[in-house]
Design a protein that fits this description.
The complex is a heterodimer of chains A (about 400) and B (about 90). Chain A has about 400 residues and is an alpha/beta fold. Chain A is about 40% helix and about 10% strand. In chain A, helix 3 (about 70-75) packs antiparallel against helix 8, helix 5 packs parallel to helix 8 (about 245-285) and helix 8 crosses helix 12 (about 365-385). Chain B contains three helices and no strands. The chains are: A alpha/beta (about 400), B mainly alpha (about 90).
């Protein structure tokens, strides 16, 4: 008895020594950034500062590409990755029942955000799969005059908001199905599938601070919209999307939707202020900067600016301390300028000079200020090196130049 | 149980802020501190005791979330952001 007590005392007394904190393997991309700490005249002892270089990560200003998980979402998901691992389609035991309950709760959370009925939400692997299901419906249509209108709610490159309610009413009056890819809009601007007469909607988890690999498609029940399943199998999700529903992921999507519903107004107000700050500061300090996209019908968190006489890719490389993008991530491997910019009639040269700044729930004022400062500095520097800029400063109209062939 | 007193609300507010300062990720840390301050400020003049209790219960649940997520963040922490060594550590 005494022996056991003494062991317990020893164990309690020296936890740190016995259990060294297991540090997770760091796989982050390590940037060699020189730390500009003031070098003192007196040489500091070698033990504290062997290297002058410290390793620092860039700021994240690319929320249109993907968003970090909200801590509240991860907290909701973890139990289903640790203990509650049942298959939600298992009907015969508690593991299945608790997993199914979580899945249905998540379904209700997604439905509530867009004003839908939970029976109208089908879980998918993401907005891309949802889009494919919606478009395939067109091919499955029997009547020759059935058609489908598909519009993005908020554009991911320039942030323009489409007049969804107006389009919805037109489609409804003409008996045409209306699909919208709301990946960038869900949880950020108010959406109601009944007010806006939406028949099909694609939802993406990782655009709203939820996990990657999950999404949903909203399919209207009244009047019934028939879709054809992309993948067949065990008949899950009302036969419209076979495959075991990934409970941890859908719980994350549901939690993200619930948090978004609660935080929408607060986030929108703050993001609008930060967006205003970013654009004003840049436009005040630099001439020849164009904001792409209609300024009135615009989601503030997605700012696409073209800096004339500066090549977009070189500006991105220069801003190595800030994670940014020009154009869509989906097509970023090619060097073609954005099809969106081309479509709104942007000049070729301005299309190549565009950068997209993403402001999200977790973006701070300090990050915006730092980004603005670096952007102004590098644009000025790159323009100094540009012969085109020199010609413009001399008053030459670039459009009047006849470029000779060699 | 009687409705939460002003002292209890303040205690919870301080506990939440104190815990949030331990987030190792800059973006989570700054968001949590800012959101907590703004939320308590926004609900400062709520008088209905039922509503106050509901808000307090939600805040207590959120404190639990913060505690767990701070811990997880510390176990999986990575390098600081470029902006962190330039400003004071606790914003």
């Amino acid at each position: 008895m005494l022996l056991r007590t003494s062991w317990r005392l020893v164990a309690a007394a020296a936890p740190a020594a016995l259990w060294p904190r297991a540090k997770a393997p760091t796989r982050g991309l390590r940037l060699r950034v020189v730390d500009h700490a003031p070098q003192s005249a007196v040489p500091s002892d070698a033990a504290t500062a062997p290297e002058a270089e410290s390793v620092l990560r860039p700021l994240y200003m690319d929320v249109q590409a993907t968003t970090p998980l909200d801590p509240r979402v991860l907290d909701a998901m973890l139990p289903y990755l640790v203990n509650y691992y049942g298959n939600p389609h298992s009907r015969t035991h508690a593991y299945g029942w608790e997993s199914e309950a979580a899945m249905e709760r998540a379904r209700q959370q997604v439905a509530s955000l867009i004003g839908a009925d939970p029976r109208e939400i089908i879980f998918t692997s993401g907005a891309t799969e949802s889009n494919n299901i919606a478009i395939k419906e067109l091919e499955a249509a029997i009547q020759p005059d059935t058609s489908l209108v598909s519009v993005m709610t908020v554009n991911n490159e320039i942030g323009v908001k489409q007049p969804i309610a107006e389009i919805g009413h037109i489609c409804s009056s003409r008996k045409v199905y209306f699909h919208t890819d709301a990946a960038q809009a869900v949880g950020k601007i108010p959406l109601d599938v009944n007010d806006m007469k939406i028949d099909l909607m694609s939802i993406s988890g990782h655009k709203i601070y939820g996990p990657k690999g999950v999404g949903a498609i909203y399919i209207r029940r009244r009047p019934r919209v028939r879709v054809e399943a992309l993948q067949s199998g065990g008949g899950q999700e009302r036969g419209m999307r076979s495959g075991t529903v990934p409970t941890p992921l859908v719980v994350g999507l549901g939690a993200a939707c619930e948090v978004a519903q609660q935080e929408m107004e607060y986030d929108h107000k703050r993001i609008s202020k930060l967006a205003e700050r970013l654009t004003q500061k840049i436009m005040k300090s630099l001439p020849d900067v164009v904001m792409n996209g209609d300024p009135e019908h615009h989601y503030p968190g997605c700012i696409n600016l073209s800096f004339a006489y500066v090549e977009g890719e070189s500006l991105l490389m220069a801003l190595k301390d800030v994670a940014l993008s020009s154009g869509s991530a989906c097509t970023s491997a090619s060097l073609e300028p954005s099809y969106v910019l081309r479509a709104i009639g942007t000049d070729e040269d301005l299309a190549h000079s565009s950068i997209r700044f993403g402001i999200g729930r977790f973006t701070t004022e300090e990050e915006v200020d730092y980004t603005v400062e670096k952007c102004i500095y590098h644009v000025k520097r790159l323009r100094e090196m540009s012969p085109l800029w020199e010609m413009v400063q001399d008053g030459i109209d670039l459009k009047s130049i006849k470029w000779t062939q060699h | 149980m009687a409705a939460s007193s002003r002292a209890q609300v303040l205690d919870l507010y301080r506990a939440m802020l104190r815990e949030s300062k331990h987030f190792s990720a800059y973006n989570y840390r700054s968001y949590a501190i800012r959101r907590i301050r703004d939320a308590f400020r926004e609900n400062k003049s709520v008088k209905d005791p039922v509503q106050i209790q509901a808000l307090m219960n939600k805040a207590k649940r959120d404190l639990g979330i913060i505690r767990r997520q701070v811990h997880i963040g510390q176990m999986y922490s990575t390098d600081k952001l470029i902006i962190e060594n330039q400003e004071k550590p606790r914003t």
